[in-house]
Amino acid sequence: MDAKVTTANAIEQQEVLLRVDNLKTQFHTSRGILRAVDGISFEVRKGETFALLGESGCGKSMTALSIMRLVPQPVGRIVEGSVNIGDTDLLQLSEVDMRAMRGGRIAMIFQEPQSSLNPVLTVGDQIIESVLCHTSLKRAQAKARVLELLDAVGIPDPARRYKEYPHQLSGGMKQRVMIAIALAGEPELLIADEPTTALDVTIQAQVLELLNDLQRQTGMAMLFITHDLGVVSNIADRIAVMYAGQIVEQAARDDFFGSPRHPYTRKLFESLPRANKRDESLAVIEGNVPSLFTQFSGCRFVDRCDYAWNACHQSVPRWLGDEESGVRCHRFDETVDQSDNEPVEKTSQVKTQVSPSGAIILDVDMLKVHFPIQKGLLKRTVGHVKAVDGVSLKIAEGRTLALVGESGCGKTTVGKGILQLLKPTSGKVDFNNQDLVTLDKKTMRGLRSDIQIIFQDPYSSMNPRMMVKDIIAEGMIAQKTVATRAERDSRIDELLEQVGLPVDSKQRYPHEFSGGQRQRICIARALAVKPKLIICDEPTSALDVSVQAQILNLLKELQQTHGLAYLFITHDLSVVEYLAHDVAVMYLGRIVEHGPVNTVFNKPAHPYTEALLSAAPTLDDESQRDIIRLEGDLPSPATPPSGCYFNPRCPKVMDECRRVYPNKVELNSAHSVCCHLH
């Protein structure tokens, strides 16, 4: 962040590299014309990072594809505008010339590296293809260049990784390979489309630092597309906010975070979960992004705005500003008649009460879930993947325990082990004084109404051929919790209202809803059988910040109303800080720290917890934070390191850490840690 602050003035003097002017991209479909990008203009200077921010479906990624001239054809087409790199208008180039431009002067990193890399080609072959295409190097020289690129993006042992396939790499490694491919042609502009969304906070911090370092070394400009305000705060020089195909606000970083102007931008900030909002509901943006099939006659945000008045419905707001900064809002337009400007500001900041601690409802003791590794013709067991290796935790009525850690540490397996969806290798799962591990299938089936689960992806967890009413009713029928059809129908209506959906939603199918609405349906399905405990497996990770706020408010309200207990599995620490009472930090199948959220977040005792907290993106000035960069990736649970599992990555490692796994140390009655430092 220091570099960003000190070079801000220098960047303002830099020459404009990318100029997008009145760009319009449309899709001609059977439903009509979808205006995905509807007249946007912005500039990116050499050496700067320009962030494009907004909710899913607002047109961010289609803007990037339009710049790269990768709009799906024949249904999609760029109908108006210009895209200039220097003096070259990309929209006027032949396909042959544009092919040379892609990967040469402009390169792009996509959101999901796994689907972007070819699974049947080695990492080296995929990078060398770009080197040979965009440089004059011969194959032997190109291979040396590939090894340099792998080293430059921080991949250890480049010669070995060169020969490996994408499936042999971790998520962070795959994203680094994508960056190496993008850098092969030494681009002047790098377009990064949500490059860190699917990554853990520690890997995300590494990738962001890498992009910053490469930018300083090469002087390239970067168009960074994201919906994460924390990431934007840490990496951007200037920011533009997109909504329904248009840019509604643009400003320099300090101005943007110091005083956001557009009502939509302000609502995004208010929707962010924070520790100081624990006792209140988050502000939400009611409704959804309007359909891009709409022919707008007024402001596109009018139906969701707290400040709308007549002029907002009657006329389209004009852009107020220049190429550097501005806003699209009638509130700041002196030429608009504001005599009826008497908006009523709405607020969602309703005080709530956290349910007091009740009796222990779930007591997990030394839970282990091991998967055998079998080899040979006779499938002999030669080892085990120790996905969960002795986890103990307790949850009381009306309280939320958050389980956090990097991908692959075993969080989801813990949830499935508790539910007996995966058979534990050993240990106890005491639920209301019954050990679930010892129960037969019939008895366990009878208890499933008491423990429910909400999955990360709501769409894949629902049958697309079933109506909403049947999806919600399925559990009630299986568990026989409702006697008659009339009672069941009444219960479905009650549940839909409870989760904030109209009653007529029950006659629709899952594909007819937005992501946030689908998650509400899944919550209604879980509540249908009146559970006492709900396991929430990353229920908000795929949602925009405004939809996330709605779901968090709903979960908190339901907990207060029904005294529900939650096991909340996540890697989003801001959500943990807002929602959870207690937190357990997991690393490679084991709990390394456990305690009240306030205690763990303010005084972390384990070096891994410290690293997670320091790496989480915030809206604070980066120069005021001491970020701990973890080297390497999570080890394999099939071959964990000797001693403390964290010792190969720990910045405070001692000789004893390499020899003996630390015992659990009780720092006080509620806070414990497994670390030789204590």
How would you write the strand order of the largest sheet?
A: 6-7-8-3-9-10-12-11
Our measurement of the CA-to-CA distance between the termini, rounded to an integer number of angstroms, reads 33 Å
Shape annotation: globular
Task: Give unreliable regions as ranges.
Answer: 344-356
Oligomer: single chain
Binned strand content = 15-25%
| Helical proportion, percent range | 25-40%
Q: Describe it for me?
A:
Helix 19 (515-527) runs parallel beside helix 20 (545-562). The chain is an alpha/beta fold. A hairpin with a 2-residue loop joins strand 4 and strand 5 (88-89). The longest helix has 18 residues, at 201-218. The chain is globular, with a radius of gyration of 26 Å. The model is unreliable at 344-356 (pLDDT under 50). Helix content is 32%, strand content 23%. It has an 8-stranded mixed β-sheet with strand order 6-7-8-3-9-10-12-11, sandwiched between helices. It has an 8-stranded mixed β-sheet with strand order 18-19-20-15-21-22-24-23, with helices on both faces.
Concise synopsis of the structure shown:
The chain is α/β, with parallel strands linked by helices. 32% of the residues lie in helices and 23% in strands.
Which descriptors would you attach to this protein?
single chain, 24 helices, 678 residues, eight-stranded mixed sheet, alpha/beta
Write the layout of secondary structure elements.
Blueprint: H1 2-6, H2 8-12, E1 16-29, E2 32-45, E3 49-53, H3 60-67, E4 76-85, E5 88-89, H4 95-101, E6 106-109, H5 113-116, H6 123-134, H7 139-152, H8 158-162, H9 171-183, E7 189-193, H10 201-218, E8 221-226, H11 229-235, E9 238-243, E10 246-252, H12 253-258, H13 263-271, H14 310-314, E11 320-321, E12 326-327, E13 360-375, E14 380-396, E15 400-404, H15 411-418, E16 426-431, E17 434-435, H16 441-447, E18 451-454, H17 468-479, H18 485-498, H19 515-527, E19 533-537, H20 545-562, E20 565-570, H21 573-579, E21 582-587, E22 590-596, H22 597-602, H23 607-615, H24 655-659, E23 664-666, E24 672-674
Parallel strand pairs: 3-8, 3-9, 6-7, 7-8, 15-20, 15-21, 18-19, 19-20
Antiparallel strand pairs: 1-2, 1-4, 4-5, 9-10, 10-12, 11-12, 13-14, 13-16, 16-17, 21-22, 22-24, 23-24
Helix pairs in contact: 6-7, 6-9, 7-9, 9-10, 17-19, 18-19, 19-20
